[in-house]
Amino acid sequence: YPPCSSCTKIFLCFYVIERQLDAEELLLYYLRKKHILFLNFTFEFYNSVNYFHLSGTKYGCGVGGCGACTVMISAYDPVAKQIQHRPANSCLFPICSLHGAAVTTVEGVGSIKPRIHPIQERLAKCSGSQCGFCTPGMEPTCCQLRATGQCCLDEEERVCSSSTGGQVTIWSFILTLVKTTKSLSFPPQRMAQEQQRTTLIFHGKRTTWISPPSLKEHVDLKAKYPKAPLVVGNTRLKKNHHGAYHPIILHPVRIPEMHVVSSTNDVIGAACCLAQLRDILMEAVPKLAEEKTKIYRALLQHLRTLAGEQIRSMASLEGHIVIRGSTWDLNPILSVGKSVLNLASEDKQILLNDQFLAGSEHADLKAKEVIVSVLIPYSMKKNALSIVNPGMRILFSPGTDTIVDLSILYGGIGSTILSARKSCEKLIGRQWNDQILLHEACRLVLEEIFLPPSALGGKVEYRRTLLVSFLFRFYLEVLHGLNQMYPFRCAELSQEKMSALGMLQSGVAQGVQIYQLRCDVDPGDRSPQDPVGHPIMHQSGIKYTTGEAVYIDDIHPVGGELSLAVVTSIKAHAEIISIDAPEALQVPGVVDVVTARDVPGENGKDEQAYAEDKVVCVGQIICAVVAESLTQAKCGAEKVKIAYEDLEPILTIEANINFLTVNLKPSLDFPMIIYLTGELHMGGQEHFYLETNSVLVIPRVEDKEMDMYVSTQHATDVQEFVASALNVQYNKIMCHMKHVGGAFGGKITKPSLFAVIAAVAANKTRRPVRFALERNMDMEKTANASVAILQVGLMNDGRIRAADFQCYINGGCTKDESGSVIEYLVFKVDNAYNILNLRVTGHACKTNLPSNTAFQGFELPQAGLFGESCIVAVATQTGLPHEKVREINMYKGVKLTSFKEEFDAENLWKCWEECLDKSDYYSRKAMVEEFNTKNYWKKKGIAIIPMKFSVGFNTTYFHQVTSSKQFHIYIDGSVLVTHGGIELGQGIPPKMSQLSYCELKIPLSYIHLCETSTTTVPSDKYTTGSIGTEINARAVQDACQILWKHLDPIQRDNPNIYLLQISEAHKQSISLSATGYFKGYVTNMNWDTQKGHAFPYFLFGVACSEVEIDCLTGAHKSIRTDIVMDACFTINPAIDIGQIEGAFIQGVGLYTLEEIFFSPEGEQLTLGPDTYKIPAICDIPEQFCVYLLPNSCNLIAIYSSKVNTPNLPFASTPDAVAAARKKRGLPLDFTPNSPLTVERIRMACNDVFTEMVRLFLSLL
């Protein structure tokens, strides 16, 4: 549409006509790769387009848990007669459900041409994106908030909504794509066509999708196909691993009766999504009397945190109810609220009660019955009350506290919602204010709601404790309500009991970032125009926010390209008897099956690329299937049969230690006043970068050359592995990296194996091969779990005289990086503390779990936790404040580390004092103590933690930039820079541009950094250890200085005229190209003498964090965090502060949230965001302040900068738990194993309810 007089919007709008629709296809894959036909409705002609390929929408997890695939769906609501804009996970959204809808991807929000959206511009300029992979998924959600439909086209839409449109046949499919340059709207023609009430039928290869327009037809279809699932949002309908599918799917979303909303009789249409339910309730609550809205308020309380907005916008109320999953949190509330299901058949109704939720035959839906709407009644009595998950409701006799009716339901305890019906019946007629009622109610519930020790999901003791903890909170809520109504009859709750009321709510996070500009310190040294030290926008920032940055799986399909799927082991340890592939080769589209026999050269090194005779973990790759499409490759992989002969697996550190019969007892031989011993366990952590490991291999026609496009931190390693596997020289393998969507250490060693797998397949077929891991497979490669057994000797004044650590890590089935991990764990155990007599012994344990690898921080988080545990133990033993014990033991002045490396701790103390001041630590600590004195059931904790991070590696050649860092100036003045650093989100390109300006005074707009490639920079080491930017900057600086010497005579004659200088240099045949080199920092470590200069320098930092915990549930929230980092004069403070913030939040996940589980057979159970909890927005501190230490310099690193990405230990949560234990008179020397999850927090806050559960379990 051309812009009107009052609007600047320009629309590029297409009908998308799909005549060969697959009813099982999901929107994400359709957008990224699909062949389509466009119909431009303005000119009414067909235009063939090879690929849709809207690659800004990313695959992140495949289960709707990460948001990288978010799009905005706009559809006309015939009941409300307006356009509804909702965010949705395209990885779950069936393409068939989009008839008559508009889909806005990030490309529709804005692009470099013609213009970017203000949201995108703001994100880029404020460095709101790091690696950039998931950023495009944020923007459709943001724009959905802006899409209020108040544009000039609204009148046009209202006029057109009553007209009729063209014919839509059964075999055609229409999808409207809206591309706008500013706000978002909806094509009016779509509403006209929506009036056509034709039954939509889409026939796929295996599945038929039927969307009826009327309730009668829907009922008839359900009677005809009683086993057909009803799909509205598709948030739960998933194919299982055995290839099951649904031949018929019914899609009732176009039926008006199922979208009805009636405020007069409290009816909500069954097809309404949960986001609509929330909006309806939020609108209703202020208009109704308070006593009528208790059920509504309880629903709203949980709708705020139930899944993400994308899932809430897709999941229907009917689906939420009918699935009856134990963890679906609204059902207990709807049940105790006496909700009613209205059916289509003969106006029948079903009470949504405990029997319905349990699936009782007499109370359940019949196969042919259809839910049309749900009645959610008002709360009818003033003393009725509902509490969120479980759902509890009580009704008293008027004017009394005598129980007339009581309902208690629990979700998340068993496989279905469980009701304590018998317990409730026994309590009817009792007085609520009876002193012994609570104890008896808890006993009855524990007896009735049985959870066996082997219950699915584990955490049995914790879940049983929650049964009575929630009941206690409900009991107090009701008593408090009775006191409000009848103060003369029910006494006011004590302050102790009042602290149990309410749930923790996180506020909107606010941040402060303070840093010092270089020109502010020495104006004569640097000009204000010098970009070094300024928050310059990332060169790819705009491309990140518009989705135009190209990652590996975004690369357009290559001619003849094959897709690859792998067959993996289902055994932890077994001999391979046979690989049976003939059936797979019969699958249409399958080209070949690749095994270890097809590897011309070396089949991996430490770890085999293709398993040969034996598998050593679940998930190990045995063979690969290549096919014309990914679907065909997966289908072929399912047909491959593997025969095994089981071997005995070793799965845990403890089993490994017992197997090796290692003596674990540490000993100290120094005279001390006090000895402390302990054992600390720390879980592993998933890297969970959003871009999964991906590789595209393109074999060239001649000379056995191959182009490898791979998501990796170590291109040289990929080149070496592939060349060895194909038995060719390294110079035949060319690796290319432009953008990597996150890594955190997880893409150092593993991408080489995946590259070999794809390269061998490409070599065998002589066709390009693409291999992108799905999230569940990618998550099998994690950071190491650890165990530390320690003994500490100390004096009464808190000084630690000696410490002995024996550390064990679970290395998995191969060595990988475990040797280096153990070394760095040994190096870093002391953290910031000067322990004169320190002994650390490290062991890497081989087990039959997937091989573990390095992680960001490279063992500082683990070593730091071990060291901080000693500090806490010493403080507890001596009764001294924790911060005083830290100060007593911190390094001071110029000291030697345990491995005899000298360093100056001056900046460590500057960070400490600055953090004490900026965080107002002592005042806040007093406030925390006062809060803890007044509150029994909620506690706060505050801790301030120092950090000494060893930068780089203990081997010199790991720092070297081994070959050319090329700097080319062209005759138009433009500059091309190539280097070996790989951009992972740490900002290498803008920093290289900044230092290029600083060295040569070349305008930033003239500088371009091309991809990293082994063709231009061979034999580089990996980009990791937080030092990749620094060492590559040294090489680029060297190249700049060479060019400066070349241009110096010209510059003297033509000062300040850059283009004239370049032109004159070219005329005088002066070289405008240079190659830079950096030998690397000289480091060494002699393990025989246990001495060395292991690291170039140390980075210091201090963090102060305050948290609050709910002792009844274990829930916790972060109130405030202050970080002071000795980053000296950072090259780009905006990027580096983002790295600091991100690393801290990653530490929050490590220490409090992220937990990896394995089955007894060695199968990893946490393989996606639906089973593995990573930090979310609600886990960000409400106040998050980052300060870069002012007036600090580093004489070693370039431009006096320092690296700054390690995550600091997170110790305030154990402090809050200790406050709870102190109040209860419990010992304070408990072991806070990591992660300190809600379960561990709750069980550590031992009280009458935990003891009640333990006693009950002992009697079973």
Can you walk through the features of this model?
FAD binds at residues 230-237, 329. Belongs to the xanthine dehydrogenase family. GO terms for molecular function: 2 iron, 2 sulfur cluster binding; FAD binding; iron ion binding; oxidoreductase activity. Residues 202-381 form the FAD-binding PCMH-type domain. [2Fe-2S] cluster 1 binds at residues 61, 66, 69, 91. Helix content is 30%, strand content 20%. It is of the alpha+beta class and 1260 residues long. It has 6 domains: 12-156 and 183-196, Beta-grasp domain (Ubiquitin-like (UB roll)); 197-379, Uridine Diphospho-n-acetylenolpyruvylglucosamine Reductase, domain 3; 507-522 and 897-951 and 1088-1259, Aldehyde Oxidoreductase, domain 4 (2-Layer Sandwich); 559-649 and 686-780, Alpha-Beta Complex (Aldehyde Oxidoreductase, domain 3); 652-685 and 783-890, Aldehyde Oxidoreductase, domain 4 (2-Layer Sandwich), CATH 3.30.365; 956-1074, Aldehyde Oxidoreductase, domain 4 (2-Layer Sandwich), CATH 3.30.365. The strands form 10 sheets. It has an 8-stranded mixed sheet with strand order 22-24-20-30-27-28-29-40. A 7-stranded mixed sheet has the order 3-2-1-7-6-4-5. A 5-stranded antiparallel sheet has the order 11-12-15-13-14, with no helix packed on it. Strand 28, helix 23 (715-726) and strand 29 form a beta-alpha-beta unit. Helix 14 (421-427) packs antiparallel against helix 15 (437-448). Residues 1-13, 36-51, 148-183 and 380-388 have low confidence and may be disordered.
